[in-house]
Specification:
Strands 1, 2, 3, 4, 5 and 6 form a six-stranded mixed β-sheet that branches. With 229 residues, the chain is of the alpha/beta class. The longest helix is centred in the last third of the chain and has 22 residues, at 203-224. The model has no long low-confidence stretch (mean pLDDT 90). Helices cover 38% and strands 18% of the residues. It is globular, with a radius of gyration of 18 Å. The chain has two domains: 17-24 and 155-221, no CATH class; 29-144, D-Maltodextrin-Binding Protein, domain 2, CATH 3.40.190.
């Protein structure tokens, strides 16, 4: 979605592909290592803004990555400043958090993240979603904090077709995708991954969602003044 803005070898233009629909959606959760005991976003912000506090490390997986965008927006809105450390992916980042070498990271809740939280190996401070995640009902949303306000970020996936695909074909594929989205198989997958079920959308609704999300990310990326690498 944002790769052409940050990766020089990404020559494609996302808006030229034909969007069929949105497939999945996974909340971002703000994790901390067990070296800290922050219970809420407000506690974290108060600590960071307090003069003399130790500088905390916020990790992500590279310039222009979704976790960097989420972290950048969080810092802009709260005035909190972290020492950002880029990693080459989620696996080494999580390994260093388990070893208490880094303090914080915004990570998608899917994959192995949920099991680490449930096992008490990392702390889940808050989730970047409109509502609490059913798999972690005691973990508040960032939006519940009066210091931040509405703060919603997730990793979502979409199904695209090549440019030039006839609109009637796109419409049929969209119908099929919406049927699958409501299937028992998909609902079980969603529950197992602690992800969100995507409500059925027609093509125009899916495109509206896509444009809104892309604009949100590109706005934050623009504020970082990153050069394509």
């Amino acid at each position: 979605m944002t790769a052409p803005a940050t990766i020089s070898s990404a020559k494609y233009e996302p808006e030229k592909f034909k969007l069929i629909g949105i497939v999945g959606d996974s909340d971002f959760v703000l994790l901390s290592s067990k070296a800290h005991s922050f219970k809420t976003i407000d506690e974290l912000i108060d600590y960071v803004l307090k003069p003399g506090s130790k500088e905390l490390i916020l990790a992500h997986w590279g310039a222009g990555s979704s976790p960097q965008v989420v972290g950048a927006d969080f810092q802009t809105r709260t005035g909190a400043k972290f020492l950002e450390v880029p990693y080459k992916g989620a696996a080494p980042l999580i390994a260093d958090m388990l070893g208490a070498h880094i303090d914080l990271a915004f990570v998608p809740i899917g994959g192995g993240t949920l099991s680490l939280i449930q096992a008490g190996q990392v702390n889940a401070i808050a989730i970047a979603s409109a509502e609490r995640n059913p798999a972690l009902p005691t973990v508040p949303t960032i939006s519940e904090s009066t210091k931040v306000g509405k703060f919603e970020y997730s990793i979502w996936s979409a199904l695209f077709a090549p440019p030039g695909t006839p609109d009637d074909v796109i419409a049929r594929l969209n119908d099929a995708l919406n049927v699958w989205s409501s299937s028992d198989e998909n609902l079980e997958r969603v529950k197992a991954n602690a992800s969100r079920r995507v409500a059925p959308m027609d093509v125009s609704q899916a495109m509206k969602f896509f444009k809104s999300e892309r604009e949100k990310y590109l706005t934050v990326l623009g504020s970082l003044s990153l050069k394509p690498q």
